[in-house]
Design goal:
The chain has 493 residues and is α/β, with parallel strands linked by helices. It folds into 2 domains: 6-250 and 458-477, Aldehyde Dehydrogenase, Chain A, domain 1, CATH 3.40.605.10; 254-438, Aldehyde Dehydrogenase, Chain A, domain 2 (3-Layer(aba) Sandwich), CATH 3.40.309.10. 38% of the residues lie in helices and 21% in strands. It has 15 helices and 20 strands. The chain has helices at residues 41-58, 63-79, 81-92, 96-116, 155-166, 180-192, 207-216, 229-240, 264-276, 296-309, 328-344, 379-382, 398-405, 421-430, 468-471, and strands at residues 2-3, 6-8, 11-13, 20-25, 28-37, 123-126, 132-139, 143-147, 170-174, 200-202, 220-226, 245-249, 254-258, 286-292, 347-350, 369-372, 389-395, 414-417, 437-438, 474-481. The strands form 5 sheets. Strands 15-16-17-14-13-18-19 form a 7-stranded mixed sheet, with helices on both faces. The protein has a 5-stranded parallel sheet with strand order 10-9-8-11-12, with helices on both faces. Helix 6 (180-192) links the parallel strand 9 (170-174) and strand 10. Helix 3 runs antiparallel to helix 6 (180-192). The radius of gyration is 24 Å and the shape is globular. The chain binds NADP nicotinamide-adenine-dinucleotide phosphate and magnesium ion (MG).
Length: 493
């Protein structure tokens, strides 16, 4: 069992409290993976001051050179992909196939950010006056506080950190307490790739204590948060006092629509992957299935046959399809929602209980669960559950289906299976979500495309793609008057 540390100002160190917390395997609660520092406000202060100091040199490092370091990070991630995937599976439970994908997303994000170092385009625009030159350039902002969840322990930190660093900012990184080892290995890789001391600072500990201290800190200019809508709202409020720039990527209640003309086998693979991949613990998980009445019964039969075959187990085993819930409390939340669904009058088709056979009893396993006869206003049709629970709703036409899909406070991902081009285009236009998939599951974001949601899924920013560089840079508008004359805009032009 290993004792891990924080990383501040280029040095590994304990928390000033000397207190620690444990990291355990959700597939086997008896397996202790390591202890980590339970940091305090004092540690936050040190990390922020370190990031603030190093900003002065990092902002002056040419962007292509910053990109070169990120390219090297991508190379090391590639070499260590399998090792990192195993660490991640052990600490949060999703199957190896998926944790490998998590690392790959980090690799893709690294190479994408590296190339951006030679772009970071600004604009040159004609002036309205003679012999005057107008341009706008991107400038670094300062210290960025990055607060991340456990369900994509590597990919999400890379989505935030790479563009932040590429744009010339420095970082205080607070990963989720459930996945501290992946975060530590990630920072080790940044060090190996040559990130200068103080540019990246890692502090472990409770969000309510140190996360909040980062958000409130005067010297932190930017907060990027991914997590629950509940915590996102708190962050938005406390960040308002210092008018920081804040990006919030929050919850989802995503749906897949299957129309009567759809390729049902394709839609079936899609919903299985969307609903039960990562044990349903994805912000983009398929939590609702909206079925056209003409194929409703047939599709459910097909779905039930396949769900019965899903094998629960340790994500490290190649025989496992579905891993555990991340923690005891997450599993309890899932079960509470199942109880709510039953009380609301939905029909429990399969699952609805803890999985405790044999070895499963050592972990936080929950049986893949399907509710049918769900109506759009039930809580299980509107609220995020974050577990292996699928609510099935019947519909008679595409417009009603879209209305049902939109009937939540969230708007992250969405999917429709149809061969009808008119229905597909109606869906692309009318679905209120940041992401729409046609004939593909609600899961499948690519690193070079904008990622994020509408309504209470976020606050209007996007991660990924070209759009993320807007968030991590400040526009500076520059006028150069080379006329030698006193010229007034709007008056002398
Ligand atoms: P969470 O409880 O909101 O935690 C996310 C992070 O915030 C953790 O690092 C947490 O620290 C920290 N935190 C908690 N309270 C805080 C506070 N008061 N101030 C500052 N930081 C605080 O979410 P989670 O349970 O880890 O993750 C699941 C949620 O994330 C789901 O709702 C899911 O939909 C959402 N999610 C969204 C996206 C997206 O891109 N839209 C992606 C993935 C996940 P601790 O370590 O102490 O918990
Ligand atoms: Mg949490």
């Amino acid at each position: 069992m290993k004792k891990f540390q924080n990383y501040i100002d280029g040095k590994w160190c304990d928390s000033s409290s000397q207190q620690t917390f444990e990291n355990r395997n959700p597939a086997n609660k008896n397996e202790l993976l390591g202890t980590f520092p339970k940091s305090t406000k004092e540690d936050v202060e040190k990390a922020v001051q370190s990031a603030k100091k190093s900003f002065e040199s990092w902002r002056l490092t040419p962007a292509p050179k910053r990109g070169d370091i990120l390219r090297k990070v991508g190379d090391i991630l590639t070499q260590r992909k399998e090792e990192l995937a195993k660490i991640m599976t052990k600490e949060m439970g999703k199957v190896l196939l998926e944790t490998r994908g998590d690392v790959q997303e980090g690799i893709d994000t690294a190479y994408y950010a590296a190339t951006e170092g030679r772009r970071l385009f600004g604009h040159t625009v004609p002036s309205e006056l003679n012999n005057k030159f107008n341009m706008s350039i991107r400038t670094p902002i300062g210290v960025c506080g990055l607060i991340t969840p456990w369900n994509f322990p590597l990919a999400i930190p890379t989505w935030k950190m790479f563009p932040a660093l590429l744009c010339g900012n420095t970082v205080v990184f607070k990963p989720a307490m459930q996945t501290p080892e992946t975060a530590t290995r990630f920072v080790e890789i940044l060090i190996e790739a040559g990130i200068p001391n103080g540019v990246v600072n890692l502090i472990h500990g409770a969000g309510s204590e140190i996360g909040n201290a980062i958000v409130e800190h005067n010297d932190v200019e930017v907060i990027s948060f991914t997590g629950s809508t509940e915590v996102g709202k708190k962050i938005s409020k406390s960040a308002a006092d210092t008018l920081k720039r804040v990006s919030l990527e929050l919850g989802g209640k995503n749906a897949q629509i299957v129309m009567d003309d759809a390729d049902l086998d394709l839609a079936l693979d899609g919903v299985l992957w969307g609903a039960f991949g990562t044990t349903g613990q994805r912000c983009t998980a398929t939590s609702r299935l909206i079925l056209h009445e003409k194929i409703h019964d047939k599709f459910l039969e097909m779905l039930l046959t396949r769900v019965k075959k899903l094998r629960l187990g340790d994500g490290l085993l190649s025989t496992t399809d579905v891993g555990p819930c991340v923690s005891e409390s997450q599993r309890n939340t899932v079960h509470q929602y199942v109880e709510i669904g039953k009380k609301e009058g939905a029909n429990l088709l399969i699952g609805g209980e803890f999985a405790t056979e044999g070895e499963l009893d050592n972990g936080w396993f929950y049986k893949p669960t399907i509710f049918t006869n769900v109506t759009p206003n039930m809580r299980i049709a509107k609220e995020e559950i974050f577990g292996p629970v699928l609510s099935v709703i019947k519909t008679s036409n595409v417009f009603e289906a879209i209305q049902i899909l939109n009937n939540t406070i969230y708007g992250l991902s969405s999917s429709i299976y149809t061969k009808n081009i008119n229905d597909a285009f109606a869906a692309m236009r009318d679905i209120k979500a940041g992401i729409v998939y046609i004939n593909a599951p609600t899961i499948g974001a690519e690193a070079h495309m904008p990622f994020g949601g509408v309504k209470q899924t976020g606050n209007g920013h996007r991660e990924g793609g070209w759009t993320v560089f807007d968030f991590y840079s400040e526009w500076k508008t520059i006028y150069v008057d080379y006329s030698g004359n006193f010229q007034r805009a709007q008056i002398d032009s």
